[in-house]
Amino acid sequence: MNVLNYIGAFFDDSAHWQGYDGIPTRFAEHLQYTLTALGIAAAVGLPIGLLTGHTGRGGNALAMIATAARALPSFGLMVLLFILLGLGMTPVMVPLVVLAIPPILVTTYEAMRSVDPAPVDAARGMGMAETQILFRVELPMALPLILSGLRSAAIQIVSTATIAAYVSFGGLGRYIIDGLYQRDYEKVVGGATLVAGLALATLAVFWLLGRLAVSPGVRRRV
Amino acid sequence: MIRIDSVTKRYPDGTVAVDRLSLEIPDRSITVLVGPSGCGKTTTLRMINRMVEPSEGTILLDGADIQQQPVNTLRRSMGYVIQNAGLFQHRTILDNIATVPRLLGWGKEKSRARARELMERVGLDGSLAKRYPYQLSGGQQQRVGVARALAADPPVLLMDEPFSAVDPVVRKGLQDELLRIQDELGKTIVFVTHDIDEAVKLGTMVAVMRTGGHLAQFAPPAELLSHPADAFVEDFLGADRGIRRLSFFPSAGLRLQTAPIVAVDATAEQIAAHDTADAPYLLVTDPNGRPLGWSEPRDLTAGQIETGRLLPYGRPFMAGTDSLRAALDCAVLSPTGWAVAVDAEGRATGVVSQQAIGEAIRGAHAERRTDDTAQKVAP
């Protein structure tokens, strides 16, 4: 049996397509964890990144916090929080959010800093208010880079959200962890394939988002 | 009128960018601030729209202190053009130009209609409206920059080295265009440059600034060239200010000779008749009167004039419209030492020798001196 056979067998088994342990349910759970974590991380990272990038202040502090956050092991953090807080969504969400904030924060800051200063100067000289400069000039020009930060954060969350299964939550990690316990390699490989598929789908979504949201005048430059 | 009244800009580290500068910028004319890097010319410009706040002194716009106005209202009432144009890459050309009208709350359609009007005004093809800045050349982008600054029809236009990043040919085109637009619109323009030639060409008044933010001289360009206030200004004007000053003397007074001109199909008698002219060379023209080249009279044989063997005539000048500088340049470029004057259709209207140009220059100088004396006598 090779990997492709495992994959084939996993997806052919109709038992895998229904019930609380079926692919649609697990997929939806995984998506929900991902979107929640990405949403929280973006809600924290984007405003701070935009503001520090616009003013140009606090870049060093930002880099330090981001490096520290990156050094935290997601799995260890989750287990620790699980022991401290017990069963709940928080021990799962915190590591995912902590994982996702640095790429969003740092990339957004860098994206804002790398905006050509000439149009910003022109905008200010023409009498745009600071918020108008931020949202009508800097943000649209920084958008491709900002999206790439969100994209890497999303991909990391998708792959890391599998650990939720370790503390008895659902998601696609269920198949991997259960499969390992049950020595059901068909399940392990099937789960891994689904995670990889979701990661690819995430790439596709961000590509589409880039096509829709980024001005053609800016898109060419990235 | 913009009145800069003993304005100083001192930075926290103690550097003084502008030092007690006073300047009266006349309405509806181009005032150029020129000087070497670090002379405070850009700082001065940026204090007018409060991109930089002065440490001391006041700037009055039509008698009102600009500090009393909300800063963004002030800026929207002044067009602002910068080096490299600073266009918004994410917006189309049309939307770039419509920026200030939109800020002022005009409707989308009205703003865009206005933007289209301005594209035409600055010489941009309407087909570029939906393009993005990266699709335009540097010169076109700068035209968009000027159009954007003019969009809300502000009385004042601030231009910070707008043409210094484009090549010399495009720059000349943009300068001519600016002068043409200024003829039509009559804005109060403050123009910063480090290029003295640009200053002399564009300025109604030129303020030469020196390192440390001091005003060295404030005068019309012709006066600057004829009477530099001190050694610094003289040095900054460059070695050939005498020649450049000739740009302000019209060539209309030149005595053009028509005798040394023969057509390419001239008969032997005609050649002989023109040979009597007081000139060592004859200018051969085509049947339409356009110059072909110079030749010594004895090398000309009726009916067999080989145009390929004629001496080149350099670059002709437009009689009347070009300056004495252009005429002298033609004479210097021409291997025979004679300049060719042409009319708007390119037909030779006469020729003139270096010597005659020299006399005209002396005459013009003498006339200016009388003017100067007259000015000094007047109260």
Automatic annotation (TrEMBL), chain A:
CDD domains per UniProt: TM_PBP2
KW Transmembrane helix (keyword) present: yes
ABC transmembrane type-1 domain mapped to chain residues: 27-206
Biological-process GO terms, alphabetical: glycine betaine transport; transmembrane transport
Key words of the record: Membrane, Transmembrane, Transmembrane helix, Transport
Family to which this protein belongs: Belongs to the binding-protein-dependent transport system permease family.
Name of the protein: ABC transporter permease
Lineage: Bacteria, Bacillati, Actinomycetota, Actinomycetes, Kitasatosporales
UniProtKB/TrEMBL annotation, chain B:
Record GO terms (molecular function): ABC-type quaternary ammonium compound transporting activity; ATP binding; ATP hydrolysis activity
Keywords: ATP-binding, Nucleotide-binding, Transport
EC number: 7.6.2.9
SMART domains cross-referenced by the UniProt entry: AAA
Top-level EC class as recorded in UniProt: translocase
Phosphoprotein keyword on record: no
Protein name in the entry: ABC-type quaternary amine transporter
Taxonomic source organism: Streptomyces curacoi
